[in-house]
Amino acid sequence: MRPYIFCHMSITLDGKIIGPSSQAPESKPAGKVFYDLAFGKNAFYQHEGWLSGRTTTDDNFTHYQKPVLDEDAPQVPDGDFVAEASPTMDKYYISIDPSGKLGWQSKTFNYQDTTGEVIEVLTEKASNAYKAFLRKLNISYVIAGKDKLDSELVLKKMADLFQMKTIMLGGGGVLNWSFIQQGLCDELSLVMKPVADGSPDTPSLFQSKEGLSDNTPVSFTLTDIQVKDKENGIAWLRYLVNN
Ligand SMILES: NC(=O)c1ccc[n+]([C@@H]2O[C@H](COP(=O)([O-])OP(=O)(O)OC[C@H]3O[C@@H](n4cnc5c(N)ncnc54)[C@H](OP(=O)(O)O)[C@@H]3O)[C@@H](O)[C@H]2O)c1
């Protein structure tokens, strides 16, 4: 059985996940509600790891730095590499990086007061030099798919190799939609702030991408609505995905 997957995101009234609205005063309290629900001391969601797309990782953690590659590195053994986890880690950070582009500096990083331990998810497109780079940093990696990501295999490997039972699907919109369309998400959790930007260009909660997903609709069943911060107008909406 695959792990339970919930998609947890902070959004504007027009479904944006980043952009000019992040400067609005409501964004800070919304960010706190978002963090507390999934990462706080008494978090509602208890998960062993969170999934992120390559763009989200570059925007937030690796900042488009290039990996330092040794093109003459000796051939690494075939298959996955499971490193011993750092003693300080709180949760795994499952980084969807099919071609092996991300310039990690170390195997852990801090997200507020959470220490994330990186697991890179690659396909067979990733080079020997990139895998050698990850091994040098003692960063775990799994191979899921030949030249296209096999998302079901990703989840199976997270359960089998890292004992994960619950995983947060954490954006961006491209990754979210590709998992939801494949029936690989059980629940949707939205922290909604009363802001909008109206722009057709800012990334939204779900975005199809050619080759990864299409525009076939998916429906959801509302299970709960709560006002989490009345003064700042922050609501929390929960849905089941109608798979
Ligand atoms: N408000 C929030 O709660 C929140 C949460 C997370 C992120 N964000 C924001 O969202 C923005 C980026 O979102 P985004 O939707 O443009 O990008 P994204 O989903 O973070 O990353 C997209 C990339 O990830 C890889 N990828 C994702 N799904 C894949 C699949 N099924 N198969 C193969 N590869 C896959 C591909 O990498 P390659 O291009 O390397 O092939 C793809 O181009 C960021 O600015 C981030 O800060 C906001």
From TrEMBL:
Can the keyword Heme be found in this entry's annotation?
Answer: no
Quote the InterPro entries the UniProt record gives: DHFR-like_dom_sf, RibDG_C, Riboflavin_Biosynth_HTPR
Q: Does the keyword NADP apply?
A: yes
Q: Which Gene3D superfamilies match?
A: Dihydrofolate Reductase, subunit A
Keywords in alphabetical order, please.
Answer: NADP, Oxidoreductase
Q: Which residues form the Bacterial bifunctional deaminase-reductase C-terminal domain?
A: 3-226
Q: In which pathway does it act?
A: Cofactor biosynthesis; riboflavin biosynthesis
Which protein are we looking at? RibD family protein
